[in-house]
Every structure is written in structure tokens, then in C-alpha cells.
């Protein structure tokens, strides 16, 4: 037997170190790292994987390509269909698998081929050392080049150089000062990522719009942004999936648009055919589901019918000159050549006066007026005016070149001069457009409509008269037959509470909307009390989910198996039918992914109950303030919860058919579904505003102390900014995992403690230790800053909710410095009650609350 070999100690140490190095390298190849440094480039067979595992960066060849060309790009990982969202060397591919992605000697991220030939670079001109920069692939799909020497300053990011995909948290924007215009650019074909013929982005109009261009020629536009939507998108609700765009337009003219969504499996894509597709990943079918296609009809094509003509895809032919205008060339028009222009049939009065004065004499005739076109995509190239709604038409009439006007609350007065191009008629959305016409044309329009009504009336009489005659004879026969039978005893009178409730609720809301637009409250399901009692096991204590100001909430299960939450009015709650009515009125008219859904109600005798969808994770405070559950809410989840609350609140304030101030926004009123998505609940104290109201005043203080804004708690003024204050408190509670009532060092409440840390430059220290991570430090600090901006003393200093969303979802935003927050002392319960007793009934849009106490 040979003697055993003796391995020297140093050799063994080197061997162990080598094994460790190989292990780390193996893990890098298998699981992916999210960073590239000067010493760790990646070759063709290696990739970067972001921490969430959603996106991957590396080399790829397009599916179905007949070539072996290699491109450096970002794609969705773990999705069986190759979906590339960004390409670096789109016009300079590598012919083989020799490519390398690395940090160059000047600190840039570069792509080189096997001959070390540079094929792409970030081209950052700031002088940096190679070992001072690194590249990271973020969970959003954003590739960032950062400088180690300057607190991780971002030198370059792919989101600033978009290609064909518009991802959540990304911006499209215009900066007139720098000339920067972030646009989407299509691929040349499905298998060729090189620069295509189409681009899409914001156009630098007076009222910003989205446009698609083909070789710099516009082929589609969205219509102007009115503060909530692009008014030229008729199917905006299906397009946005109730998530919406964030739009920012600052004082320097910088406009930016971002599409924010809780899921990174949503994106817009500008395809090689020039159409924008909205896609989201369907996990059940393992395929991309198309949510919207732009353009979607022939009428969406820019200028389809030429000047002074409107397009309607539901009519044949789709193009028609606006009333008062006729085709310039009837032969071409009838042959389907609609771009030859419609011309005015009767000159405007000022035009007639100008023509007459040039040859002598007077103009004569009456003045001009306006023809109203409803539900329109307004023309391109509107000019802005400071005139109010009443002065807008007058300002147009005073200018002979003005051909139309429109007024929108979010846009103000819009005026058009010269030709009116790219008009479209919609079925259920759009704006009212007023076309300027000569008085004689308006008379012709009136006479035509009058004759049409008379014709329809005659037809209606001819049709209905025989029908009414037959119905009358039938009614007489039925009456005579009934008289032969013995009269039966009447049924005992029913409990009329439900009927009275619905009549009162309809009266409450009738002032805010037209009858055609009101939700039919009687369609809300009415549950029998016995059904709800059985479903909750007779309101058994073990089924009790919690206790609110309205009363206890129980978990139940309907006979068909649906789980529900039943809120039962407590006689001792200090709240009654008015609050129940208020909640039903408000929530029955609302539908949003971040609002709890009302399934029905029960009114029998003295019982008042509301039935909601069941939220298995209960309320946010159950996780935030319970040490045993805090770890369940990691930072990403908390961030998504903050964003979801904002989206629900934005819907209440701006996007719903009612304008609603919640007035009791707090952690316990934020419910969580099975995926920990937030849903705002408890609308018993909410107020409905008229469309032109921004704030109101009341002497009764309702809500929850600690979340109430100073102007509301002390003076009774409430507005959107009151809810924003509550939102800021919730932000700070989510970040810290502490209640606002919790006392910190030196007996400071949470707002004061956050302010102290902010002034000391230690804002990130506020974060719950269970979620703090250095990689999230900047984001945590930004969220603290946003929270402090929301709780500033003066209401006008606070941002509105849309700005909060924009700040949350936009990277590298230069936020304003917060001012000292309000530190509100609690009033005693007795003081709050006495103020209630002496208060007068206050009504806003006839929705009022009575006998409500602070809690």
C-alpha cells in the first residue's frame, strides 16, 4: 500500500478558497446577480437578474430570427414567451456569441465584440474612474449606472433612453430647456430590433397630448390631457384598468407622463406596425392579454376626414362635413377622398364686413353664433385662454379668426383659429365643441331639427294610438273580470324602512348628477336579517372581526359559499341611519380596485346592517402595530400599499362620478385582500362635494384624532388636503410600524419624531427595523419626505394626491423641502361631544351627518 500523500497547510487553504470562489461563481451563473462592476463583466452566456426576479439583462437573439445576431437587452424572466422591453445596441448587433458587457476605463457601461470593438456605450461625459462606477438592474426593469463616490449618484439609466416599451414607473417627457424628449421607438420588424419607422410620445402643444408619428408625420393623437384623462381616448376605463396615468407639468414647461401600476407584468408596447398595445400577463393561459390597441378604428387615424369634417366609425361613410360646411370638391368627396377639405358655406359676419368695407358700404346681417357638437374629440392645435366658462364664447366672437371654442374644468377655455382638423364623434365620452357659424346657418339648423321632430311626432301618434286603444279595451275587460271575484283581505303592511331609505338616498344624491347618470340604488341587493344571522352563526363572538365606530363587524358565509363581512349598527355607537345612508350612497356609486366593495344591506325593524366583500387579511393596523406580524409586510409590500391607498384616494377626489372627501382615513380603515393589496373602507363620515366645490366648513368635528388635519380639527374646514394630511400620517406609520399616538424620545409623537430625524439628516432611521435595508434607504428617505410634505401645517402647502403618486413613482424627483408639520393636541371626549351638541346641521350636496362624535 502506498503511503498517504501529505498536503501542505498553505496548499489546503488555497484549495478551500478556490472552492469558495467557484461556488460563488456558480451561484452567479445559476441565480444571477443584479450588478456589474469593473472587475465583474458578463459575457454572452451570463446575465443579470433583478432582485425580484421579474427582469433579466444580457445577450439575446429575437425569437424566429433567421440570423445569429446578438443584442444586449432587458427582457421578462420566467415567462415562456420572449418579451424584450429594452435594447442597447439595437442598430449595431454582434455577429456571434463573443460579446461582453463591462465597465470601461472611463467608467461607462459598454458592449464590445470579440475583437474588443465598441458597439455601444452609455456615453456619460462626467469624468469618473472605472472602479468608481457600477451597474444595477432594478426591480422596475430600469438599468442604472451609478457612482460609488457620490452617495450612489445615478449617472445614466435606461428609463431615460426608452425604446419600444413603456413600463410602470417609466416616464415619457418633454423638457423645452434641454430639448430632451423621451419617446418610444418601434422595432423595424418582429425579428429585427433596429430602429423602426414609428415613434410615440408627448407633443409640445399648448395642451400636452400623446402622439404617434410615422417618419415624423403624425398618424394618431390622444386629445389633450384634462388633469385626469386624455379626452380623445373614448375607452379610457378599459385602457387604464382603473390605474391611470400620472402627468406632471411644472412651471418650467417640463411635462412628463408615467403609467403606474402595482404589477410589473403590465406594459405598453409600440409595435412595428405603428400601433400601441397594452398587455398584461395572464398566468392561467400563460400568454399576454391585450387590454387596448391604439389606434383602434379608422377614425383614430390623424386627420382622417380633413379640415372642418368629423369622423364617426359607426356611420357609412365615416366622414361628414360639419354642419355649415360643404365639400370643396364633391366628386372627390363622393369618391372617398375626404382629405380635400370642407369649406364654409356662409361667411362669418366679420368676414362679410371685411369684404364689404373693402368696396364700401355696410356689412349688415345678424351676428355669428355657435353650433354645439357633443361627445367630440376636439381638434388639434388649441390655444389657451384665461377666460372663464361664461366669457369663453365671448372671447371667441371678439376675434374674427376664432372658429371654435370648448370649455373643460380641467383645461379651461380652449380656442381654435383657422382650420379644425382631426375631429371625431364618440358614443359615450368626449367634450362639447362649439363651432362658430353665421346666424343664417344656425337658423337653418333649427328649422331642420323642428321639421324632424314634427315628423317623428306624427309617426309616434300613428303608431301609439292603436296600441293605446287596444290596451284600454284590455284593461276594461280585466277590471270587469276582477269584479266577479270576492275581494280578498289585504296582506299585512310590510316594513317600509328599506323603501324609505332608498327614497331618501336618491334624494340625497339627486342634486349632484343628472337622472340618466345616477346609480340605481334600488338595484343594491337587500339581504334578509335571518340570512345574515345564520351566516354569522347568530353574530357569534368567535366570528367577530373587529369593532368600528359604526359597530361590530362579523365574518359570515352565505348559503352559496361566499364569505362576507357584516357590519352591524350598534345602538350605542352614536351613529345611526344617517351614517348608514351616507355609506351606502357613497360606496354604491364607486368601483375601484383600491376601494372595498359593498355587496348589499339589510334594514329590518331596528336592525341596520351592511354587507361587504370579505378581506381575509383584515386591516392594515393589524399588521403594522403587531410585532409578531410586522415582518410579513416587507418594504416592497409597504410601498405598494402606500401607492394603492393613493390610487384609491385619487379616485375618490378626482376620478369617480362623485367628488368625495373621506374624512376618516386611518390604518384601521385600510383593509388588505389575500395579496395584501389595500382597499379603503368605512365611508360613514365621507362627504360628497359638488363639482365646483373645493372645501367646506362644519362645526362638528368627526373622524379620528391623530389623523385629523389642524384646519379641520380646530376650525372645521375640510377639503382634499384634509385627506392628504391623514394620508401623510398613514405613510409615516407604514414606514415606521408605529402609531402616531405612540410617544418617541423626549415625549414626541410620530410626526414630531419624523421631523426631528429629517432635520438631523437621519430620515431613513424612522424605518421599521424589520424592513430596513440599505438598498432601499433612498426610497425610504423619499417616502418619509413625501409623508412630511403631506402633514405640513398649512393646507395649501400640501401636495394633492396626484402629485403624491407622481412623487412616489418617479425616480430622482427633486422634491420640495417640507415645512414643519402640524402637532395636534387631542381634545377631550367631552369637549368633542359638547361641540357636536351645539353644532348646526351642515349640508353639502344634501348629504349630511348628524350626531357624530370624534373617536
Automatic annotation (TrEMBL):
Pfam families linked: B_lectin, DUF3403, PAN_2, PK_Tyr_Ser-Thr, S_locus_glycop
Keywords (A to Z) from UniProt: ATP-binding, Cell membrane, Disulfide bond, EGF-like domain, Glycoprotein, Kinase, Membrane, Nucleotide-binding, Receptor, Serine/threonine-protein kinase, Signal, Transferase, Transmembrane, Transmembrane helix
PANTHER family: RECEPTOR-LIKE SERINE/THREONINE-PROTEIN KINASE SD1-8 (PTHR27002), RECEPTOR-LIKE SERINE_THREONINE-PROTEIN KINASE (PTHR27002:SF1014)
Matching SMART domains: B_lectin, PAN_AP, S_TKc
Domain Bulb-type lectin: 33-158
Subcellular location: Cell membrane
CDD domains (UniProt xref): B_lectin, PAN_AP_plant, STKc_IRAK
Cell inner membrane in keyword set: no
Record EC number: 2.7.11.1
Membrane topology: Single-pass type I membrane protein
GO annotation, cellular component aspect: plasma membrane
Start and end residues of each Apple domain: 350-438
InterPro entries in UniProt: Bulb-type_lectin_dom, Bulb-type_lectin_dom_sf, Kinase-like_dom_sf, Pan_app, Prot_kinase_dom, S-locus_recpt_kinase_C, S_locus_glycoprot_dom, Ser-Thr/Tyr_kinase_cat_dom
Family according to the record: Belongs to the protein kinase superfamily. Ser/Thr protein kinase family.
Region (Disordered) location: 825-855
Catalytic activities: L-threonyl-[protein] + ATP = O-phospho-L-threonyl-[protein] + ADP + H(+); L-seryl-[protein] + ATP = O-phospho-L-seryl-[protein] + ADP + H(+)
Leader sequence residues: 1-30
One example of a Gene Ontology biological process annotation: recognition of pollen
Taxonomy, superkingdom: Eukaryota
EC top class, as a word: transferase
Protein kinase domain segment(s): 539-823
Keyword Nucleotide-binding attached: yes
Native source organism of the sequence: Microthlaspi erraticum
Name of this protein: Receptor-like serine/threonine-protein kinase
Positions with biased composition (Polar residues): 841-855
GO function terms (MF aspect): ATP binding; protein serine/threonine kinase activity
Amino acid at each position: 500500500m502506498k503511503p498517504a500523500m501529505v498536503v501542505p497547510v498553505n496548499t489546503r487553504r488555497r484549495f478551500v478558497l478556490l472552492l469558495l470562489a467557484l461556488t460563488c461563481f456558480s451561484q452567479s451563473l445559476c441565480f444571477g446577480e443584479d450588478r456589474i462592476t469593473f472587475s465583474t463583466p458578463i459575457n454572452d452566456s451570463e446575465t443579470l437578474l433583478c432582485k425580484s426576479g421579474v427582469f433579466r439583462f444580457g445577450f439575446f437573439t429575437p425569437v424566429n430570427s433567421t440570423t445569429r445576431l446578438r443584442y444586449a437587452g432587458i427582457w421578462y424572466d420566467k415567462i415562456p414567451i420572449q418579451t424584450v422591453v429594452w435594447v442597447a445596441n439595437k442598430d449595431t448587433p454582434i455577429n456571434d456569441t463573443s460579446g461582453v458587457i463591462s465597465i470601461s476605463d472611463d467608467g461607462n457601461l459598454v458592449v464590445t465584440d470579440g475583437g474588443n470593438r465598441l458597439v455601444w456605450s452609455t456615453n456619460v461625459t462626467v469624468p469618473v474612474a472605472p472602479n468608481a462606477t457600477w451597474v444595477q438592474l432594478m426591480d422596475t426593469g430600469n438599468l442604472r449606472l451609478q457612482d460609488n463616490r457620490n452617495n450612489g449618484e445615478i449617472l445614466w439609466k435606461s428609463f431615460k433612453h426608452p425604446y419600444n416599451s413603456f413600463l410602470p414607473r417609466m416616464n415619457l417627457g418633454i423638457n423645452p430647456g434641454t430639448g430632451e424628449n423621451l419617446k418610444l421607438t418601434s422595432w423595424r420588424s418582429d425579428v429585427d430590433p433596429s430602429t423602426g419607422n414609428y415613434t410615440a410620445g408627448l407633443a409640445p402643444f399648448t395642451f400636452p397630448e400623446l402622439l404617434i408619428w410615422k417618419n415624423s408625420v403624425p398618424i394618431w393623437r390622444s386629445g389633450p390631457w384634462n388633469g385626469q384623462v386624455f379626452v380623445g381616448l373614448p375607452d379610457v376605463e378599459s385602457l387604464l384598468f382603473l390605474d391611470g396615468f400620472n402627468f406632471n407639468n411644472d412651471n418650467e414647461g417640463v411635462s412628463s407622463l408615467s403609467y403606474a401600476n402595482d404589477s410589473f407584468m403590465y406594459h405598453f408596447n409600440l409595435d412595428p406596425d405603428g400601433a400601441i398595445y397594452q398587455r398584461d400577463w395572464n398566468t392561467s393561459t400563460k400568454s399576454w392579454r391585450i387590454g387596448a390597441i391604439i389606434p383602434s378604428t379608422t377614425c383614430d387615424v390623424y386627420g382622417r376626414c380633413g379640415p372642418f369634417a368629423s369622423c364617426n366609425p359607426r356611420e357609412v361613410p365615416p366622414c361628414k362635413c360639419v354642419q355649415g360646411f360643404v365639400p370643396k370638391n364633391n366628386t372627390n368627396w363622393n369618391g372617398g377622398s375626404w382629405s380635400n377639405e370642407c369649406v364654409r358655406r356662409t361667411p362669418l359676419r366679420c368676414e362679410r364686413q371685411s369684404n364689404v368695407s373693402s368696396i364700401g358700404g355696410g356689412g349688415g346681417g345678424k351676428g355669428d353664433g355657435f353650433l354645439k357638437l357633443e361627445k367630440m374629440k376636439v381638434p388639434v392645435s388649441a390655444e389657451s385662454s384665461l377666460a372663464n366658462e361664461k366669457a369663453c364664447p365671448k372671447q371667441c366672437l371678439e376675434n374674427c379668426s376664432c372658429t371654435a371654442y370648448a370649455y373643460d374644468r380641467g383645461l379651461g377655455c380652449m380656442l381654435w383659429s383657422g382650420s379644425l382638423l382631426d375631429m371625431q364623434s364618440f358614443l359615450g365620452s368626449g367634450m362639447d365643441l362649439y363651432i362658430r357659424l353665421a346666424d343664417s346657418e344656425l337658423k337653418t339648423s333649427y328649422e331642420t331639427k323642428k321639421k324632424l321632430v314634427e315628423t317623428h311626432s306624427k309617426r309616434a301618434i300613428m303608431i301609439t294610438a292603436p296600441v293605446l286603444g287596444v290596451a284600454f279595451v284590455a284593461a276594461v275587460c280585466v277590471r270587469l273580470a276582477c269584479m266577479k271575484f270576492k275581494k280578498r283581505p289585504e296582506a299585512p303592511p310590510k316594513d317600509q324602512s328599506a323603501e324609505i331609505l332608498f327614497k331618501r338616498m336618491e334624494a340625497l344624491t339627486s342634486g349632484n348628477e343628472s337622472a340618466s347618470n345616477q346609480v340605481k340604488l334600488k338595484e343594491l341587493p337587500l339581504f334578509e336579517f335571518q340570512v345574515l344571522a345564520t351566516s354569522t352563526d347568530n353574530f357569534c363572538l368567535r366570528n367577530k372581526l373587529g369593532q368600528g365606530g359604526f359597530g361590530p363587524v362579523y365574518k359570515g358565509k352565505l348559503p352559496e359559499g361566499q364569505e362576507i363581512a357584516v357590519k352591524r349598527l350598534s345602538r350605542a355607537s352614536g351613529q345611526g341611519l344617517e351614517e348608514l345612508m351616507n355609506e351606502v350612497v357613497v360606496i354604491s356609486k364607486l368601483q375601484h380596485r383600491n376601494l372595498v366593495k359593498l355587496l348589499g344591506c339589510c334594514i329590518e325593524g331596528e336592525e341596520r346592517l351592511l354587507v361587504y366583500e370579505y378581506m381575509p387579511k383584515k386591516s392594515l393596523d393589524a399588521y403594522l402595530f403587531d410585532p409578531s406580524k410586522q415582518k410579513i409586510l416587507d418594504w416592497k409590500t409597504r410601498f405598494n400599499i402606500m401607492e394603492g391607498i393613493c390610487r384609491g384616494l385619487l379616485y375618490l377626489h378626482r376620478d369617480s362620478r362623485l367628488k368625495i372627501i373621506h374624512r376618516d382615513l386611518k390604518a384601521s380603515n385600510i383593509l388588505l385582500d389575500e395579496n395584501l393589496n389595500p382597499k379603503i373602507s368605512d365611508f360613514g363620515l365621507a362627504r360628497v362635494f359638488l363639482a365646483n366645490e373645493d372645501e367646506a366648513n362644519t362645526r362638528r368635528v368627526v373622524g379620528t384624532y391623530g389623523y385629523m388635519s389642524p384646519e379641520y380639527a380646530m376650525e372645521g374646514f375640510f377639503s382634499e388636503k384634509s385627506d392628504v394630511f391623514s394620508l401623510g400620517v398613514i405613510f409615516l406609520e407604514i414606514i415606521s410600524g408605529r402609531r402616531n399616538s405612540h410617544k418617541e424620545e423626549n415625549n414626541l409623537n410620530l410626526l414630531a419624531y419624523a421631523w426631528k430625524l429629517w432635520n438631523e439628516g437621519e430620515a431613513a432611521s424612522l424605518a421599521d427595523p424589520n424592513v430596513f435595508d440599505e438598498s432601499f434607504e433612498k426610497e425610504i428617505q423619499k417616502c418619509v419626505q413625501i409623508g412630511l410634505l403631506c402633514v405640513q401645517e398649512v393646507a395649501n402647502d400640501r401636495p394633492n394626491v396626484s402629485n403624491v403618486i407622481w412623487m412616489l413613482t418617479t425616480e430622482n424627483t427633486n422634491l420640495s423641502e417640507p415645512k414643519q408639520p402640524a402637532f395636534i393636541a387631542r381634545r377631550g371626549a367631552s369637549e368633542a361631544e359638547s361641540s357636536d351638541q351645539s353644532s348646526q346641521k351642515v349640508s353639502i350636496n344634501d348629504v349630511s351627518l348628524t350626531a357624530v362624535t370624534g373617536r
